[in-house]
Amino acid sequence: MSTHDIATSIERLAPEEGGWGLLSLEGGETPTAGVGPYRLALRRLRRNYTALAFGLLFLAIVAVCLLAPVYAHAIAHTGPNTQHLTETIKIGGKSRYVVSLQDVPIGPTWRGQFFLGADTQGRDLAVRLLYGGRTSLAIGAMAMVITVVLAGILGVVAGFFRGWVDGIISRVLDIIWAYPALLLAIALGVSLALGGVSIGPIHLHAGSIYVPAFIIGIVYVPYVARPIRGEVLGLREREFVDAARALGQSNFRIMASELVPNLTSTWVVFIALQLAQSIILEAALSFLGAGVQAPNASWGTLLSSGLSYFQKNPNLTLAPGIMLILTCLSVNVFGDGVRTALDPRAKVRVVR
Amino acid sequence: MKRTLRLASGVASAALLVGTLAACGSSGPARTGSGSSGGGGGGGQGQSSTASTAGGSSTGGGGGGGGYAPGGTLKVLMGTSPDSLDPDYGYTAQAAEADWIVYTPLLTYTHADGTTGTKIIPGLAQSLPTISDGGKTYTLTLRKGLKFSNGKPLVASDFAYGIERAIKLSWGGDSFFTGNIAGAAAFQGGKAKSISGIVTNDKAGKIVIHLTAPYGAFENVLSFPAAAPVPAGTAMKPLTLDPPPGVGPYEITSVKENVDFTLKKNPYFAGFHIPNIPTGYVNNIHVTIESNNNTETQMVLDNQADEFDWSDTIAGSYLQQVQTQAKDRYKAETLAGTDYFFMNTRTKPFDNAKAREAVNLAISRVALARLAGGQITPACSFLPPGIPGHVSGPCPFGSATATGSPADIAKAKKLIDQAGLKGTPVTVWSETRQPRQAYTTYLNGQLNAIGFKSTLRVISDSIYFQTIGSAKTNPQIGFADWFQDFPNPGDFYLLLDARAIKPINNENFGNVNDSHIQSAIKKLEMIPASKLSSVASQWQALEKYVSSKYYMAPYGYLIGPLFLSNRVDYSRVVFQPLYGDDWTSFELKK
Fold it and tell me: How do residues B2-28 score in pLDDT, each as one tens digit?
């Protein structure tokens, strides 16, 4: 079969169908401009209504949490740590204690004040839920950034240089990986929560939210660095890397301008998935007392403090639990949608 | 879509795991654990006892009426592990509850509830001491034929060795010895090899104790488990995991720190025929540390355990259930103990009286009582009811008891501003257990409201009092409580006595060193226990002085639950006012 025959037999596929804008070269037609991979991915993502819906849900959760101060001031008229232990509120014309004499807090009022009820310290649960969301999301995001950046650097360097550099980096990652992430995070959380962390000129005081963010970020580095390293090991053998070397580019330039852009899709996927992982781990650490410290609010501390009242006031546990589920679910589903959209092997058809 | 759903359900399951596992209510970390009275020697019910049990001292060993019989294993739950079961080192209510029936001192208390339980009787001594030399010399004679639980014969010099050991190990109450027994201070300072004020004759079994000055409560001091004899040669270090042998109805057979410990009947004790000290009904007592007070409550409700830690607090969410479902085996006992917030008078900002006053104004005693589910009585003064010197009457910091009584934040803020202390960083120390963490969370919020920059530091119950009692920690403010060792205000004033300030195991957390208090204590502690009521007004005056200086922020008098399983003959149980549940009175169903 001649090259011409092959070319004529390649069907031009529309980009919407996953094609890469391949030409049908029949009798002298001019080639058509292709669509870039990211634009293609965006188109695929736009058609994934489930992923979009969950992505919007996540954005809605973030927006609502960011508006916590507005809610606290304008609607609930209280702060996240303000205690109303001896106060009463009027519900249906009847005066009720926010916290009863037996230390049982009021349940959901479904009104501005104490919309979801109060906790045992007389604090507005809805306000704490939103402020807690800010903390949990902030820690999750910071941890994700730490993980992705550190893992990216280590993975690229290890995969590119190989040899003893790869050996050292991989062994360090193996040591971290040898410990279950949760146990390692708990151990670090407990030891660093009291004394804080000092890294050179940077000092994170005990009780700072940067401490759990730092811990979670470090703990997940191997889980991201190893796949990136694996990809780099393959990419470094590609011809564009040889071409860059031939052009006399430095190693750093090659890594930055040749390898990193080709890892973008991997990073994007990890960003979404790692965000969910970090939020869950933060909740677990805070629940166990090794993350966010009382009386600061996070979804984990809310779960922990509401636990002992689960029978009488299930709202104290259900509210943060449901928020956690919705947030992590939405991030994971959206992240899965992004991964599917970016997968270059998703739709390519060759017609004989 | 199918793949997304699988993934979604997988994530949902994973995220639900947090709430679901949490809801299982496991006896895991002590984060929401139960409380214990730290720092106090024994249990306390004071003169305002509400006990309705038949009580009275029981000689034990008989029993068997109404479906109950001697024998079996009593299953006890404690919310906090004893700091140490070594009698010369441990000084918490949990430690005392066990040590009292393992280490009988020369003198002890009646095994009875109410005020009868505060009566001192001979223990290992043949009789109460002969007091001479103007109250400065105490002479006692040991009973004959006594042996430790390991079979070693007891001699008089073992008593002296026990006192020396308690001083060497820096027992929390050692100032009772060093401040009163001649030569004890020199021994503590390393200037003497023994305590010159204790003279013993092993052959005659005679013990003579010389004091530096008359001390009215010295018989109470001799009744501490820490004053019990231990075999000479016992290691001069805390034997927390392998406590020394004692002379008591029971002996300690195994200890797993922070997990459990076991007592079994001392085979020798019944043969000594010591009157008024029961030998006990049950053969074994197994104590498990259960820091989650919900689990603790549920286990006793379900009769999986026999005793709820009386120094603990039943969570408000369970209280009604206990009061209805187990009303025949639950009672709230008034205890002679006080919850308070200490303030370090040697450290900023609480070296300033205005700051201390502001704290007292900023806390609502009613709010704190609510956090305890009504299981403390709101209070303003340090000495609880039933202790001579207790001050009743209106609280100077706003009503202590009126429902809805708020704190005076505005006035407190003004004081902080006047003192120029706004924005001062403060660390509030707390245990993990509830409701103590709830108390300190409340305090933390109030301190921030009045202008401090306050943060909460929560540490494990098992090391809490050692940590705040260490000079290295130098805590500013935090939770503390005191439960009477004996019904004498001098016992409570250990916490304000400058002589009690030590680099470790310090009980005077506020580091209070006030010459007026020192001279008053010195004068009043000479009064014999039998004449306490004659100086009650002087103790009251001292109380008012302490309040005027705001040296501490008392907020509640303790109420303890006598909550048992249906395996126990509730009618025979003795709630000893100084040591809590008297395990020698527990008899189990056949």
Answer: 323 344 444 444 444 444 444 433 332
- Which helix or strand (DSSP H or E) is residue B260 part of? strand B260-265
Cβ contact, residue pair A304, B31, below 8 Å? yes
Predicted local distance difference test score (pLDDT) of residue A29: 55
Contact B374 A103 (CB under 8 A): yes
pLDDT at B50: 31
User: H helices then E strands: how many in chain A?
Assistant: 15, 4
Evaluate if residue B575 carries a pLDDT over 50. yes
| A104 touching chain B per CB within 8 A | yes
Averaged pLDDT, B473-487: 94
Q: Answer yes or no: is A272 within a domain.
A: yes
* Dihedral pair phi/psi, residue B493, rounded to 5°: -75, 0
Whether residue A108 lies inside any domain: the answer is no
CA distances from B8 to A203, A265, A300, A322, B3 (A): 39, 22, 21, 14, 8
Of B15, B22, B367, the CB nearest to A86: B367
pLDDT of B43 above 80: no
Structure tokens at A150: 């550190």
Task: Indicate whether A67 belongs to any domain.
Answer: no
DSSP secondary structure of B286-306 = EEEE--BHHHHHHHHHTTSSS
Which of left, alpha, beta for A294 (phi over 0: left; psi -120 to 50: alpha)?
Answer: beta
- Which of B18, B319, B444 is nearest residue A321 as measured by Cβ atoms? B18
Domains identified in chain A, total number: 2
Q: What's the rounded Cα separation, in Å, for the pair B8 and B2?
A: 10
Residue appearing with tokens 């500013």: B476
* B197 vs B180: CA distance, rounded Å: 10
Interface test mutation site (partner A, options B17, B325, B366, B370, max chain A beta carbons within 10 A): B370
> In this predicted model, what pLDDT tens digit does every residue of B492-525 receive, in sequence order?
999 999 999 999 889 999 999 999 999 999 999 9
Question: Of residues A101 and B391, which shows the higher confidence score?
Answer: B391
Chain B, 293 to 352: residues with Cβ < 8 Å from chain A are: 293-294, 315-317, 319-320
Q: Is the residue at A206 inside a domain?
A: yes
Do A22 and A135 share a domain, yes or no? no
Say whether both A25 and A143 belong to one domain.
no
Of B15, B370, B459, Cβ closest to residue A99 = B370
Residues A30 and A141 placed together within one structural domain of the fold: no
Domain assignment of residue B147, given as a range: 1-590
The total domain count for chain B is 1
Chain A residues closer than 8 Å to B374 by CB: 101-103
Which chain A residue has its CA at the smallest distance from B24's CA? A307
Per residue in A277-333, pLDDT (tens digit) is: 999 999 999 998 888 887 889 999 999 989 888 888 999 999 999 999 999 999 999
Determine the 3-state secondary structure of A226 from DSSP.
Answer: helix
Within 8 A by CB and 6+ apart from B257, the residues are B81, B240, B241, B462
- Tokens at B429, concatenated: 């120390």
- Residue A163 phi/psi, 5-degree rounding, is 60, -140
Distance from CA of A277 to the nearest CA of B (A): 10
> B112: closest CA among B170, B56, B51?
B56
Q: Which domain holds residue A261?
A: 130-342
Hey, are the CB atoms on B31 and A288 less than 8 Å from each other? Answer: yes
Angle between helical axes of A264-288 and A299-307 (0-180°, round to 10): 30
Query: What CATH number should be reported for the domain holding residue B532?
Result: 3.40.190.10
Q: Do B317 and A313 touch (CB under 8 A)?
A: yes
The CA distance from B539 to B537, in Å, is 5
Does the beta-carbon distance from A321 to B435 stay under 8 Å? Answer: no
Contacts of A275 in chain B (CB under 8 A): none
A252 in contact with chain B, both atoms CB, cutoff 8 A: no
CATH of the domain at A185: 1.10.3720.10
